[in-house]
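cron nightly-structures :: item 1 of 1
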Amino acid sequence: MRSKTAIALIAAGLVAILLGIGFRTIWAPPETLSASYSAGDSTAPVTVIEPAVFGVHDERVDISVESDGEFLLAVGRAGDVDAWVGKAAHTSISGVDGGQLQAETVKGDAEVPNPAGSDLWVSEETADGQADHRWIAPGDGEWSILLAADGKQPAPTAVTVSWPNDNSAPWGIVLVIVGALLAVLGLALAALARRGGPDSGAGEPAGRRAAAEASGSTASGTGEGQPARGGLRLRAAESVRPVLAVAAAGLLAATAVPAHAGETAAPKEAGDSYPVLLEGQLNRILDSVEAAVTAGDSARDAKELAPRVGGSALTLRKANYTVRAENPDLAAPAPVSAEPLKTAMVGTTAAWPRTAVAVTQGKENPVPQVIVLSQAGPRENYKMVEAVQMLPGTTFPQVASEGGGTPAVAADSAEGLLHVPQQALEVLAANLNNGKNQDKVGKNTFAEQIRAFQDSQVKANKNADITFSRKVEPESVRALKTADGGAMVFGYIRNVMSSVPAEPGATVELSDEFAALAGKSSTASGVDVTYGESVAVYVPPAGAKDPISVIGVAQDLVDAKLK
């Protein structure tokens, strides 16, 4: 009987070992899992691969895209991609289920602008026919991939997502271990059976066994201190049970694997404090701005500025080009440099318009320059709307950086500030007009120069009555928090110097600069000369005793109109 049990254990062990090796080799799971989708008849101009798709694996996800021609693959924040797509028809690839990519086609506009070159994209690549992309999240938050041809042709929809599969087959190792234990146990029982003995019952006549039992003597005749063979057999047989139990438990534990690896993990919720631009995006935008401004300044052509310059920055430069065409001796605007980047303020507000600020100082800039960038909408690129020179002796405040970005403050909200942002600029405007609010605006060289210029104009024109009035352009006001709870406020002030003859019949003479804009060198009715003043001011937090600080300015002649 013992020999038969031994043979069965050895056989079971060998089978388990072979099965374990098989699970680790010929029956091993694939090293890579994949899921695909293709809608060959789609006419949508955009395809979006949603964030959930990238959750199929924590470490590595590969995206393969096939197309009949050239196409763009762009990576951007999920919210930015959705905003850019807007009402366009698009294919949305939303996740993986049952080993298949799940997708739907959303109806909408049949054409969109070409998305190539958008400032929303953290990265983009152009491919012809096929592209392989190793997914790496650019930063915290949720990200998507946008696929498009040129905005008019159908976007690629043949997408395959692949990721590593856990093919370690732990149950294979368990089977090998269990098989080895069974084989060893079988060999041990076989050895005992071969040794034989009175307790085995083999070769002992039945009469002798009966006589022995009748006389009460043991068949083995054990000596003092010698354990009975019957006891040994009992322990050996019972020892099989815990070994098998442990092996079975190990096998069950090894086969209790997690849910299907191809199912999409739930995406993390996107936070509200992510910067709207990463460092690479900001640097790329600044390079484009510098190139546009350099081209415009060199040609004195505002058309060169249009792609990257707007707001007051465009107004001031355009007027400067016009005046310098008549008077070449007039000073050119300060050049704009993308680097070195000294500090930056990048807003975290997802809504548009968006704001970012960069402080740079190129070789041709005697003082640091504050560049204010604004993006009007998701399908528009950032433009430089202000470029002001820091005043001597001023320091740019320490930037607040929550999650890598800087919280914005609404132009009409105090939000813990000593002044509402727009009111702060109005306080400054009144101070520049007539010296009011001296206790609210810190001493600065700009105000001193402005008032000195205004006084000189009044004294030099005895035959004219001259007044000055300033108005803050509400749409130009932008504010971003500083680390101390205050804010940097940026805006544009229109300064109108109105000159009228002091007496009927008198004539107001115009300088060459004014005449270049007004079209005449003198007037008997009067003239309104407009200066543009871009300003950057620091507003302290609520409760502070410090006044508003003027950090930087840019002023230039903008217009001259006869009355």
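cron nightly-structures :: done
The chain is about 30% helix and 30% strand.
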